[in-house]
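Model: You mentioned two targets. I'll fold them one after the other.
Researcher: Yes, keep them separate.
Model: Target one:
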Amino acid sequence: MKPQLLTRTIERFCWVAGAVDSATGLMLIAEPETTLTLFGAQAVDSGLVYLRFVGVFVAAIGLSTLFPLTLNPQARWARLPTVLETTALTRLAVAVFVAVCIWADALTLPWVVVCLTDLLVASAQLTLRWKLER
């Protein structure tokens, strides 16, 4: 595949995958039952299954943050700014979601630890990212 065609293919792939995942995620937040019906799936009664599902995403954020550190220094520093930005965005989204759930009495007050931790780590990530540009 020619470099220009490959570049366009990758960009289009990212647009489609990003749009589909973003829409699905927002649908699962706003209308989980309807979204599951559209997928032909049913909600699982076990809360532990959902916690494990969330655990996969939490682990993926951690592994995404660690991945650049396994690369040679040049590749590491080419990727770290993006990792800092994207994982901070995820952490901010989680913090807002958890805060809203606490406010709406859908989560108990101890969940504020998750909210504050994600806010603190995201703030540190964005600060470090900003310092890289200076």
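Model: Target two:
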Amino acid sequence: MNNGKTKPRCNYKYFGIGIILLSAFTLVSCQEEVAVNYGQLGDQYQSQGDLDKAEEMYLNALMLYRRENDQERMAATYCNLGNLYYSRGKLAIAEERYNTALEINQAIGRQKGIADVYCNLGNLAYARGNLDEAEEKYRRSLAIMVQSGYEASSATIYDNLGLIYFSRNDLDKAQQMHHLALKNHQRFNNLREMAVTYGYLGNIDRKLNELNSAEEYYQESLALHQRFGDQEGIATQYSNLGIIYKLRGQTDKAWEYWMKARDIFWKIGAHRQELNVWNWLDKLKSQDPDTPELPEKPQAGEPEPEPEPEDEFSEEPME
């Protein structure tokens, strides 16, 4: 679901500058600066969907932070590695990294870090279908953020609570949570998170069969994700738009958008999402023999099993 992730944001122009600075800092052996640049480059690679390169950068940063005994940045890097493994569908490894980050943050008393990890652990529980556990983790995170004055970050938790209510089919409460999140994102001009919230509001309208409104939200989300080059977000909205077109009977357009989504998910190593889209394509092919032939399915790794969807066509929105 990508939604409580602690991912510092960098614009694309910084990417080349970061490589230059990294080389310069390495030459003069400024260990802390080198580590910070590795971490920032890891964030950039992860945003672009190059998870292998992102992992390499994060591990380089972690090695140097350990050498400098920089506990706060070690915890943040473990959290980023957890996010990376979450994107790959390696939920057990992600959980290990998050728990390591939690232990470090608790040891140094960093409340923001503790809140971030509880949010990520809530994401894991949600991905596994454990809604009560996910809600408990999210509310622990929210309580810390509100008490500590982290208003901008609390918006993400409202979004995640909206997902819980959506999964329980309490759409009124889900809308309420997402609108609280959107208001907060707009207040702090957090366009990246606004992109995610627009997608969630689209999911609700899709569930209410308000397909035109849902499409508008998905298109707004897609435009913002494209603006920042967020490959996972782009693929997610391609997936959701494909659902809209399938529900309207526009099978050719649904196929087109799902193939775009599949290609991106495969490219960035997002195996859980890729598997969902493959299942949709396979069912669409079985229902409409006139659709194109599926290409050979790539060997993309072994994702953890997901909860079985409840609806006949598996038209659950991507998150």
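Researcher: Noted. Anything on target two?
Model: The CA atoms of residues 44 and 151 lie 25 Å apart.
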